[in-house]
Each structure stands twice: as structure tokens, then as C-alpha cells.
């Protein structure tokens, strides 16, 4: 990759701040092209990063980073930030094993002040940093950059409510930058708003405003009239009233691609005390016509040629588990009019586009609000509907109390379709669905199904939907072995596993897609393999039957070992008074880094070779039993 002239001189934001203002537009153009070139080679998030180029340049130009703290919400839009903070030459390793992360990480750079990847945490974190600076008597700024989508989450509003409150008699110095990249608030943007934003953020406006307040307070009716007029006048051009009610000084909206507007406005706000709120409007995919035209398509592409854009593969890929879910959702909705589907802002990622098109009145996107999504589903279930909550395994963690208190405690028939269970590859630790079996199976009334392949996933979803209590179906990202799905809406036998291979001495109990590497390992060891299907309830009869004919057990799951499906098997054995040795294989007790899924599974010992080697080492399998 050829480094362009200005960008090649930027190894840190200090270098950026030495540039003249007139050079910044050229730098932004070079930075945007560098992002496009990088992502087209490695894959990753594109449209969101193309939209934050000028904002990133302006923030690092105005603020003294890393002494001043920038906290990026979600963080998938921080590629320009990474390039400007000393990681330009490492962009070729983005999201690859051993390379840099696609999200901010504190252990990767001092400029990544807070690790993010889940949504709506930035204002809370930045407020904590602002109050810490105030408490320690340090002169530095804290800035939270949050998208309009992330502002739908309750946590963002909890933080806004807290931020406007005085701490030790003083409102903390905090700047919240709302990056409105979807025009969801539909603000007018132009010369008038640019002028108003600069005026309203300046010291003259603030001083005049306070001076007039002082005069009018002597005549309360006039003061109240002036206050209402000011709010009304600002409300005609800005949607800022709600933020001012939280105690923020609202400024904007301004064009987030106009450095001549961004920089002076940020400079004015940097020098103002208290809670400041800047509303900027950006365009996803900005500067790359194909991405501007279809920002969803270019949200997270795999490698592609920028000259021609993303093309359909020559040979159709295998059906993914997400696609299996999307087709099942439509088929079950045709069969049962009680079905309603809920997503927390993940329509495309969860495979619900076709359902939304065909059943718009039964589709509910609640925004990035996982807690609300679960309790919303509970309310629907109380009234006789059958909610299906489509949610990533790692995102359901955010609604744990609601699952327990609002769904399970009331034993409501809510189906949880848990996508991205297990290793997720390039998105890394923050998105890895390692904990769902452990955190779900301890909840009374909750059941957990772990289908082994695509067709079993369809059957598992049908089984879950028809139960009179909450059930979660977990399935991984991507495709499975390519098992053909049946058109019928058939169920699995409740709580029953099946023996898929008969062998000797060792019984491997496989959960989910680990069935297939377990079968590969069993061929070498002449072991028995059971497809357990259910992590809760575990098939106790099958476990007892295998205990009568085998010396040892091995459990295999693509999830954490602590409290996982292997633990459930041990509990079954203990309850039955069976003293069989058990080797529990699963993800190690550490956060799984980003990288190729196959490599990460192999590194975790969850491919056929790793499973066979672990069994041979633990049970000293006789060489005669180990087949090449």
C-alpha cells in the first residue's frame, strides 16, 4: 500500500497538530483513501469509518490527545483514529490473528483510553474520566463520541442524566459529540446552522446570554418570557431541548465533514466549563460513491476490489445458520399468527430482512436496547403472543436481569434465537459468544438447545417456539457442514440426545456444532459419540446408558468450560451416583482474541486433532486405539 504524502508524516496526533489548517482537508482526503485501501484488503467495517474521517482529524487537532481522553462508542468507526495514532503501518493486520483489533483496546495503544465494542457505554466512561480528573485536580478534557443509534440505549440516557449533576458543587467538564450519521433526527444543515453553531458555542454568546439573564432576573415575568423565547427559537433549528434539560449546553447540528465548521466549534467548546453537547451530522460511506449509495452493504465487507465494489461470489456460498433462522422465522410466521419477532437494531445481522418485508406488522426493531427488548417480549407473551427475540449471544448478556426477573420467573414462552454463539472470528473477544450456556442453564424454567447443523437448528427453533416456557437456541456465526434443511416444521424429541457413533471405552458427549470434530476424533480413537442437542435439560437417561458401557466421558462444547455443558453432565453423573472420570473440553478460561475462526478453534483444542490429542493424553489411550 502506498502511503500518501501528508499522511506518511503523521506518526502521532502531535504531528497532526503541527500541520496548518489549510493542510487538513488534503490530509482527510488521504486518510479516507487509506481507510478504503486497507479495508478492501483485510475486510472490516467500512462505511462507518469513511464517515468519521473529518471528525477524527478535528478531534485530534483540537484536543491534546492522549492527555485529553477520547472515548469512542462501539468503536467500529475508529480506523481513522488508529491510523493517526501510530498504527498506520499495522492496518494490514487488522482483525487478523496477532494483528490489531477492529475496536479500541487499552492494551493496544495509549490513545485507546477505553475498550469498547458494545454500544452506548461512552458517555458513562467519559463521565467517569471527567470526574476522576476533577477529583485529582488534573486539567484535561474527556470527550465521548457516540452515534445516533447508540443514543437509543437506556444506558446513554442514564449517563446523560448523571452528567448534568454537580459533583462536589461543580458540573464535570465533559463533551459529548453526537455523530448523527443516519439523519434520524433530520436536522437542517447549512450556512445558517454553521453560523449559529459557532455563535452559540462562543464566549461572546455565553457572556451575553448570562448578562441578559442577570438583567431580566430583576423582572421575573420578562425573564421567563425571554427563556421561553430562547428555547423556542433554538428549537426551530435544533433538536437540543432534551439535552439542555439534562444540563448540557447544546450546540449544533453542524456538518461533520466540514473542517472549517468542526474545528472552531470544537475549540470553543473545549474552552467552556461544564457539560457540553455537540451534534454533528455525517454520512456513512462518505467519499466512496458505492458505500454512500449502500452503507449497509458496505458496513462490514470481506476483502474486495474498490474499483468495482463488492461482487456476488461466482459459486453460491453454503447456507448460514443466520439464513436458516431467517427462513424458519418466515415459515413459522405463516404457520402461527401469534409469532412476533423482536430485534435490538440487528435486522440484517440476525437475518430478518425478509421477515420484515413479509410481516411488517409483526416485526419490532426496538433500537439498541437489549434490556427493553427482553421485557417488551415478556409483555407480549403475557398477552398470548409468541415472541422470538433474535439477538447475538454476547448482546443478551446485557439483558440478564430481564431474562431472569421478567421472563423466567414468570415462566413466559419467549424464544431466544442466539446468533454468534461461540467463536466469532475477526470481531474478537467483545463479540465472542462464550458464556451463554453457563449463564442460561442456571436460570430456572430456562432451557437451552445446541443444534449440531443447519437442519437440526431449524428443528430446534420449532421445538423452542412450541414450548410453554422460555427456551434459547444457540447457533454459531457462518455456515455449518452444509446439512440440507427440511421444509417441514418438525420438532426434536424434547430433552433427548442421540448416539451418532458406537465405539469402546470412551464416550464423547458433543454439544452443538462440536459434534463433527468430535466424530473426526472418535474415528481415530474408536470412541462413542453422542449428539447431546440439549445443554438443559441434559439427557440423563442417555448419560446413564453410556455410563454402563464406557469407562470415561469427554464433553465437548464451543463455550466456556466453567459452568458450561460439561458441568451439566458432571452434575447428572453426581446425581445418579456414577463415579466416571470426565474430561471437559471447551474454550479456555481467557478472552478469545480476533482471528480466523478455524485457527482459533484449533488453538483452543476444539478441532478433531485437538480433541483426539486431549483424550489420548488424559486417558492414556493405547496406541492400538489411535488410528492415523
Number of structurally distinct domains: 3
Identify the overall geometry: globular
Can you say what the CATH homologous superfamily of the largest domain is? Answer: Thiamin diphosphate (ThDP)-binding fold, Pyr/PP domains
Strand share of the residues? 5-15%
- Please count the beta strands (DSSP E, at least 2 residues each): 17
CATH class of the largest domain: Alpha Beta
> What is the CA-based Rg, rounded?
27 Å
What name does the CATH topology of the largest domain carry?
Answer: Rossmann fold
Q: How many helices does DSSP assign? A: 25
The span between the termini is 44 Å
Query: What helical percentage do the residues reach?
Result: 40-55%
**Reading side by side through the largest sheet, how are the strands ordered?**
7-6-8-9-11-10-15
- Averaging pLDDT over every residue, what do you get? 89
Low-pLDDT windows of residues: 183-189, 229-238, 622-628
Class by alpha and beta content: alpha/beta
How does CATH name the architecture of the largest domain?
3-Layer(aba) Sandwich
Largest beta-sheet characterization: 7 strands, mixed
Would you mind describing this structure in some detail?
The protein is α/β, with parallel strands linked by helices and 628 residues long. The chain folds into three domains: 7-292, 3-Layer(aba) Sandwich (Rossmann fold); 321-474, Thiamin diphosphate (ThDP)-binding fold, Pyr/PP domains (Rossmann fold, 3-Layer(aba) Sandwich), CATH 3.40.50; 499-625, 3-Layer(aba) Sandwich (Rossmann fold), CATH 3.40.50.920. The strands form three sheets. A seven-stranded mixed β-sheet has the order 7-6-8-9-11-10-15, sandwiched between helices. Strand 6, helix 15 (353-358) and strand 7 (363-365) form a beta-alpha-beta unit. Helix 14 (321-335) packs parallel to helix 20, helix 16 (370-382) runs parallel beside helix 18 and helix 21 packs across helix 25. It is globular and about 80 Å long. The two termini are 44 Å apart. Residues 183-189, 229-238 and 622-628 have low confidence and may be disordered.
Amino acid at each position: 500500500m502506498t502511503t500518501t504524502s501528508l499522511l506518511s508524516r503523521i506518526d502521532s496526533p502531535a504531528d497532526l497538530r503541527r500541520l496548518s489548517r489549510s493542510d487538513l482537508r488534503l490530509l482527510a482526503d488521504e486518510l479516507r483513501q487509506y481507510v478504503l485501501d486497507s479495508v478492501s484488503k483485510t475486510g472490516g467495517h467500512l462505511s462507518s469509518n469513511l464517515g468519521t474521517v473529518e471528525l477524527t482529524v478535528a478531534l485530534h487537532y483540537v484536543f491534546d490527545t492522549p492527555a485529553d481522553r477520547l472515548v469512542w462508542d462501539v468503536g467500529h468507526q475508529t480506523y481513522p483514529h488508529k491510523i493517526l495514532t501510530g498504527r498506520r503501518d499495522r492496518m494490514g493486520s487488522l482483525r487478523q490473528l496477532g494483528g490489531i483489533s477492529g475496536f479500541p483496546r487499552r492494551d493496544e495503544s495509549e490513545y485507546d483510553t477505553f475498550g469498547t465494542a458494545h454500544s452506548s457505554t461512552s458517555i458513562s466512561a467519559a463521565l467517569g474520566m471527567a470526574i476522576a480528573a476533577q477529583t485529582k485536580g488534573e486539567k484535561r478534557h474527556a470527550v465521548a463520541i457516540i452515534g445516533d443509534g447508540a443514543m437509543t440505549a437506556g444506558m446513554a440516557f442514564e449517563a446523560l442524566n448523571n452528567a448534568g449533576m454537580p459533583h462536589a458543587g461543580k458540573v464535570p467538564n465533559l463533551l459529548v459529540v453526537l455523530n448523527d450519521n443516519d439523519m434520524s433526527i433530520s436536522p437542517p444543515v447549512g450556512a445558517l446552522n454553521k453560523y449559529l453553531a459557532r455563535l452559540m458555542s462562543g464566549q461572546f454568546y455565553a457572556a451575553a446570554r448570562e448578562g441578559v439573564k442577570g438583567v431580566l432576573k430583576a423582572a421575573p415575568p420578562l425573564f421567563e418570557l425571554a427563556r421561553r423565547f430562547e428555547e423556542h427559537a433554538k428549537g426551530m433549528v435544533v433538536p437540543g431541548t432534551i439535552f439542555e434539560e439534562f444540563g448540557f449546553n447544546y450546540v449544533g447540528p453542524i456538518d461533520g465533514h466540514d473542517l472549517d465548521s468542526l474545528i472552531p466549534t470544537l475549540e470553543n467548546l473545549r474552552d467552556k466549563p461544564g457539560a457540553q453537547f455537540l451534534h454533528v451530522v455525517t454520512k456513512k460511506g462518505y467519499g466512496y460513491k458505492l458505500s454512500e449509495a449502500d452503507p449497509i452493504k458496505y458496513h462490514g465487507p470481506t476483502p474486495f476490489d474498490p474499483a468495482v465494489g463488492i461482487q456476488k461470489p461466482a459459486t453460491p456460498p453454503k447456507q448460514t445458520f443466520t439464513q436458516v433462522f431467517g427462513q424458519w422465522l418466515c415459515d413459522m410466521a405463516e404457520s402461527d399468527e401469534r409469532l412476533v419477532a423482536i430485534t435490538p437494531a440487528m435486522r440484517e445481522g440476525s437475518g430478518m430482512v425478509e421477515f420484515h418485508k413479509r410481516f411488517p406488522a409483526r416485526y419490532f426493531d426496538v433500537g439498541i436496547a437489549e434490556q427493553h427488548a427482553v421485557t417488551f417480549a415478556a409483555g407480549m407473551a403475557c398477552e398470548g403472543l409468541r415472541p422470538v427475540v433474535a439477538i447475538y449471544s454476547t448482546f443478551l448478556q446485557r439483558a440478564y436481569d430481564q431474562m431472569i426477573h421478567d421472563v423466567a420467573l414468570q415462566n413466559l414462552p419467549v424464544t431466544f434465537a442466539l446468533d454468534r454463539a461461540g467463536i466469532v472470528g475477526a470481531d474478537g473477544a467483545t463479540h465472542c459468544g462464550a458464556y451463554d450456556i453457563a449463564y442460561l442453564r442456571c436460570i430456572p424454567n430456562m432451557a437451552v438447545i445446541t443444534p449440531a447443523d443447519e437442519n437440526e437448528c431449524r428443528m430446534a427453533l420449532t421445538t423452542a417456539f412450541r414450548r410453554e416456557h422460555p427456551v434459547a437456541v444457540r447457533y454459531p456465526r457462518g455456515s455449518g457442514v452444509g446439512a440440507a434443511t427440511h421444509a417441514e416444521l418438525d420438532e426434536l424429541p424434547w430433552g433427548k440426545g442421540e448416539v451418532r457413533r458406537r465405539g469402546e471405552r470412551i464416550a464423547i458427549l458433543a454439544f452443538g456444532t462440536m459434534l463433527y470434530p468430535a466424530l473426526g476424533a472418535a474415528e481415530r480413537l474408536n470412541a462413542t459419540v453422542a449428539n447431546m442437542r440439549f445443554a438443559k435439560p441434559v439427557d440423563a437417561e442417555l448419560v446413564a446408558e453410556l455410563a454402563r458401557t464406557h469407562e470415561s466421558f469427554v464433553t465437548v462444547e464451543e463455550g466456556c468450560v466453567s459452568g458450561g455443558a460439561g458441568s451439566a453432565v458432571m452434575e447428572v453423573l453426581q446425581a445418579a451416583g456414577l463415579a466416571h472420570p470426565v474430561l471437559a473440553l471447551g474454550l479456555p478460561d481467557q478472552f478469545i482474541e480476533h482471528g480466523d475462526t478455524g485457527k482459533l478453534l484449533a488453538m483452543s483444542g476444539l478441532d478433531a486433532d485437538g480433541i483426539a490429542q486431549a483424550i489420548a493424553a488424559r486417558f492414556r489411550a493405547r496406541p492400538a486405539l489411535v488410528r492415523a
